[in-house]
Write a structure and sequence with these properties.
The chain is built from five helices and eight strands; from the N terminus they run H-E-E-E-H-E-H-E-E-E-E-H-H. It has about 230 residues and is α+β, with helices and mostly antiparallel strands. The chain has a single domain (about 30-225), classed as archaeoglobus fulgidus dsm 4304 superfamily (archaeoglobus fulgidus dsm 4304 fold, 2-Layer Sandwich), CATH 3.30.2170.10.
């Protein structure tokens, strides 16, 4: 996958925030695309001072695994809530450079616009890569909501003051909900529909569940080898 750099990643926290604020002007929550044949699921695991970025490509809607790649990079950016993209994006971009089957949509284990500056990793990299993207997070970063009913498929809006920033979604009956938010070039309804269509009996959508297993398997190998 060819990637044209939009900005550098070796930034100070102050520079990173400034870039988030500037990129916010580019967010589009409109779906202008029709084709959805391949989905990329992206996740990151950490080992010592390194980040392991994994990308799995699936045929949609069957979710047949077509390709999987990973990249490992040293992490230099500090852990700061709201700026996790700065830690995770570089290794994910390196992994994306290796894929041969380019995805129509990117699915992240993280936030889209459900972020204090509306710039979670799904939004930031959706803009950076100019691809439709969505975030499906296991926990809330910002906003208030009413708990959805216990039934699978139930959802409630996630509000940050008066702004809709995501959906709280029950992907499995009587299981803790996930937090779905548009990244870029996608609307709320489509993001919700795609997440639910990717569930296969687990709380986490299958592409992200398998991406999580993949990067943690790589991490285990590193641990065994003592790298």
């Amino acid at each position: 996958m060819k990637i044209i750099p939009l900005h550098p990643w070796n930034l100070s926290p102050e520079e990173a925030i400034a870039i988030q604020i500037e990129l916010r002007k580019k967010i589009s929550l409109k779906r202008t695309w029709k084709k959805l044949e391949k989905i990329a699921a992206l996740d990151v695991a950490y080992f010592k001072d390194k980040a392991i970025g994994g990308v799995l490509i699936f045929k949609y809607p069957e979710l047949v695994l077509l390709e999987k790649v990973f990249a490992v990079l040293k992490v230099d950016f500090p852990y700061i809530p709201g700026l996790l993209t700065m830690r995770e994006a570089p290794c994910l971009i390196e992994a994306l450079k290796k894929i041969k089957k380019e995805p129509d949509l990117l699915m992240f284990d993280g936030q889209g616009i459900a972020h204090p500056r509306r710039m979670g990793i799904a939004t930031h990299l959706g803009i950076y890569l100019n691809r439709p993207s969505l975030g499906c997070a296991k926990s809330k970063l910002v906003g208030e909501y009413k708990m959805p009913s216990e039934k699978e498929g139930a959802s409630e809006p996630l509000w940050d003051k008066s702004e809709l920033v995501g959906l709280v979604v029950r992907t499995k009956t009587r299981t803790r909900p996930v937090f779905v938010s548009p990244g870029n070039l996608i609307d709320f309804e489509t993001a919700l529909k795609i997440v639910l269509s990717c569930c296969r009996g687990h709380r986490i959508p299958e592409p992200l569940r398998l991406a999580h297993i993949f990067v943690n398997k790589i991490k285990s190998q590193y641990c065994k080898e003592g790298i």
